[in-house]
Amino acid sequence: MMKRTAYALFEKTILDLYNRNILTLHQLDYIADQYRLTAIDSAGSRFLVTRDGKDLHQVCIGLVDPCFPLASRGSRDDDDEAWERELRKWEEIVYRRWGWRAYCNPFPHRQREEKTCA
C-alpha cells in the first residue's frame, strides 16, 4: 500500500466511524496498530472533516485524551498556539502510542489554507 493511500484510508475509516457515533478508543488503537509496519504519510490526506467540523487529528486527540483542549475551527481560540499544542499532542499519540509517524506535513489541512493566502 502506498504511503499516501494508507493515510487516506486511515483518515476515511476513522472519520466514518466517528460520524456514525461508533468509534471507541479501543477501535481507534486497533485500527492504528494495523498501520504500525506501513509507511504512512499525511500528504495523502483528503482534508476530510466530521459533521461537527473536526479533522482526523482532533478526533484522535479527543478520544485518546478527552481532557485536552481542542479549538473549534474559526473560533477565537483557533490560533497558532492552539495549532502547535494540537500538533505536539498528535505527534505524541502517533509516535508513542501507535509507534508510527504519520506525516510529512503535520497538519496538511491547515498548511493548505496558508498556501492559498501566501
Keyphrases for this structure?
disordered C terminus, 118 residues, mainly alpha
Write structural notes for this entry.
Helices cover 53% and strands 0% of the residues. It is mainly alpha-helical and 118 residues long. It contains 5 helices and no strands. The chain has one domain.
Summarize the helices and strands and which ones pair or pack.
Elements: H1 3-19, H2 25-33, H3 56-64, H4 80-97, H5 108-117
Helix pairs in contact: 3-4
Major sheet: none
Judging from the principal axes of the Cα atoms, what is the shape?
Answer: globular
> Which structural class should the secondary elements be placed in?
mainly alpha
Number of helices: 5
Number of strands: 0
Q: How is the quaternary structure best described?
A: single chain
Radius of gyration: 13 Å
Strand residue content: under 5%
Low-confidence segments, ≥5 residues, pLDDT <50? 105-118
N-to-C span:
33 Å
Mean pLDDT: 84
Number of domains: 1
Order of helices and strands: HHHHH
Q: What is the helix content?
A: 40-55%
Summarize this, please?
By secondary structure, this protein is an all-alpha fold. The chain has one domain. It has five helices and no strands.
